[in-house]
Amino acid sequence: SQDQFNATSHGAMAMVIISLQTFTGMWINAFIASVLCIAWLKKKNFNSNEKILLVLGCCRFWYLCITWVYSLFSIIYPRYFYVYPMPQLFASIQSFLNFSNLWVSACLCIFYCIKIANFRHIFFIYLKVKIDRIVPWLLLGSVLLSLVIGILIYSIIDEALCSNHNSTTQGNFWKLKIKMDEHIFPVFFLAGFGFATTFMAVISSALLLLFSLWRHKCKMQTDSGKNISVDAHVKAMKSILSFFVVYSINFTCSILTLVYATKKANPVAFLILVFQYAFPGVHSLILIFSNPKLEKTLRRTLSCVKCKVCMR
Question: Which residues are the signal sequence here (predicted)?
Fold first, then answer.
């Protein structure tokens, strides 16, 4: 029928747009991970900033990969997607990688804040001295907490599906009927907690760095020379403010995703999905241009690719 044809064409168009965003984001994050791995193998040494960027690049690469497969099955092959235990398995893995992505990127903002901001409080001084030892534990804690949430989401959705399916005959398809009831509310609560926690970490880091910069500039007003500490503050502030803008959009889209989770597909939900797919790629691109080593390698790579294309 005409309606079925329109639905198929819209699904194909949506898949094309999502695929372009996904593969672009995967390439950007694979670039970050590969450059850092090569540098690690060459110098056998890894600073805290590079550790965070490597974990973040890997998390985002696999998150985009799994989410693309999820979209492929749910849009183009829905009958194959709603087979036990595919819905809860995809939701669990996707949640684990998404929360790892959000919390590790929040750890990056916290790291910048502690490393660059100047405060005389004894606890802040302790963190500044110990930050390189704390970073691996922060990364491990973020991954483990994400894993726990992923397991919880699997069990919650599995219980919801078991209470909603109509038949247990082998070969029947399980339909995922998301309802705002006692089974699905914990999923929304966990997702909201994760989004709010990371967003607050980014806001706090930006405000602390801004306050530190303002205090430092007030102290250095009598000095007409260029100050290295001020330059470091300004550079970090540019990075974190760009993070803040991107995070604000992503946080808004994430909350709207929870709002539209119980409703049928509509243009607003698709627009939210587009923004969410763009987040890992755009934020990682900002990270590349904030890091001199990554930026230099990217420019060199693009120039080599351009030369090879021109030679053809």
Answer: none
